[in-house]
Amino acid sequence: MFKPKATAVKPLTTLLGAFFEKAGIDLASEAYNGKTIANPQPKLVGQYEAALTQASYLSRLAYEENEVKLGGIQLLNTNPLIFNTGIFYIYGALSKSGKASVNKVAKYVGEGSVISKRSESGGIFGKEAHCHFQVLDYTGYNCGCPYPGERVLYLAFRGTSSVKDVFVDLRANPSSLKRLYESCQFADVEPTIPTSANSSTSINSGLQVQPNIIRLKDTFWNHYDEKGFASHDGFIKVVELIMQEICDEVRRYLTTYQLDRIVITGHSLGAAKATLVAMILASFKSAGVQLLQPVRLHCITYGGPKLFLDYSRNVFNDLLIAGHLTLDRVANRSDNVASYALGSLGTGVGALTAVGTAGLGAAAALVNPIIDPIPQYPIAPFSFYVHPGFMILKTETHTQSTTGRSRNISDIRTMFGGLDRKRGYFFNGLPTYVEYFNCFDSVADLTYDTYKIKILINHLGRVYTGQVLKNIKTFVGSITNISAVADLRKNEPVVEGATGTEVAAVAAPAEPQEFEGAQLGGALFSRKETKSYKDETVNQGPNHVVYMCDRNISSVVCHAGYVGVAYVGALRTMMKSFKLAPYTKFETSGNTLVMTSREIPASFATSPAAFNATGGTRKMKRRHRHRSHRRRSHRRRSRRHCSRR
Predict the structure, then answer these.
(1) What does the domain layout of the chain look like in residue ranges?
(2) In angstroms, what CA-CA distances link 178 with 222, 229, 317?
(3) CA dihedral sign of residues 28, 31, 37, 38
(4) What is the pLDDT of residues 453-485, one digit of tens each?
């Protein structure tokens, strides 16, 4: 049956749509020939994929200890080859020296903080939540970055990285979102915004109005009694643990900086957390919180599991349509049907749920390395969960030409950027066109022609030899200067930082009340809600962005590489348990980036010299020698034991 060609693209509720809106381009009025809009914008598409890459950087850093974050955030405006190589270089240097970086060269890096919280009880069945806040200031940039002329706040959430997280993944029974909506409130106050974006970054002087406490239960009460207003119980509980602290910290940044955008991001389990947090913040914006009105909210997730019922998915989508939020749900799969391949694996995949989403990723790689199973989790008997946002229906065909909807990243590049594979990229492959490359800083000898070859053939997206590697090491060393500062030890009292200002830790609020899985009663989903979604999704541009696993930089596990960023190194966090301070702050002072938290030793009061004067360096070296001696002794005993056998 002949289908007429589409004459217009569908509205976008994604970050790309926000970029077109800022550029003053109305996609609804753009002529469309079934392949490309009349006025394609390759620079905007390159900027869009650069923004996806940068959010993936933050999601990757969320797995790391704060020392690695401190150096890694200064690589956020570099291309993936430099970022992947630099992170491994920073981690290797820290593992040898045990020291962290303070030098700040990247001028776009602003203040940051990390909130970490664990439940007091429950053991391995307890909960822990971490959120990394980071300001990137591009107000002095006209190009060469994902957000030129803007100031952006990132919220990044860590994925599955501990036994506790695995049990959070497995707690898949549906639970009412009412608990999460009632777990937080927003102290709203309307600040006086400077007339010029460059006139001042601080707006505290204009805060003369008493806070107006906004509670979502006063606005969203009509959803609470709906049986389908529910989500994955484990995800709700872990976000509930830290949601009030997130609201308070977001408010602090909003009243300190003139922000243009807030980007909430995460990978795997972190994607589920980011989705729920984005939903709460967008709900506050919908409820009329004045601080959030001038700020665009964006949710960008990577390899996230399903978490909503049909009704709650439709509530989330209403926030997208109303313009309170955008969603970009990035996924890896081999082709348009590979995401459904798990269904053919039968009971073997069902057994994989016993090891949580982290185990799913590793175990599925043994079956088929080009399938990312996490976006299909939870599976039976909880397969009724759905993803947020709008998608291509299984019954749709030839969507690009007949409906004006994109199915994958190649469609997006062609439809909105006029880019085809002759411009230097593979079908659904990594971005290797020049408009994308120009959105990042590079180093000498790493030209565009060199980059587009190395990113596709180098394992884990890293540089291993040659002059380019030397230049990257020099560049990273000039930023981080890892060997120049004192050792950071864990779980010490808060002390004065290098700026001489005491930073108090955030008081941990009372443990939230534990709830059993909500007794929703009746049907968990209805045909009415499903039909409502299907009727609406064909009128909207999809929110999923599909890349191909075959062209992924992680050739072993599809789940461990997104938009050119390797997550493989983050898997080491599952091999050890490290404890973050309840509150850590990254502050800038001139050309220095200082970390102040409970992780700084009490003897390190003001400077490395003060630390060395107390004998701290000698003590550290002594401990290192003792540990090395014990390791050598253990190896000798093991060899003697083997020889006797």
Answers:
(1) 15-614, 616-645
(2) 11, 8, 18
(3) negative
(4) 888 787 778 888 889 989 888 888 776 654 433
